[in-house]
Amino acid sequence: MTRICIYPKDIQIVTGKSERYGRSVIKLIKERLDKEKHQLVTVDEFCDFMGLEPSKVKGLLK
To answer: Whole-structure pTM over 0.90, yes or no?
Structure first.
């Protein structure tokens, strides 16, 4: 089963940057998509925001 939500640690794996960077990216995505604090960010939303191919990102997260 594949996950649909992305977390700062996942962003760290994909980008090679710090977990703190991952938290800031999630915050930016939530602001851009007008999400509330309790709502999660999906892998597809992350890929859309970063301009990445979802299949490649999902491959890294397995």
So the answer is: yes
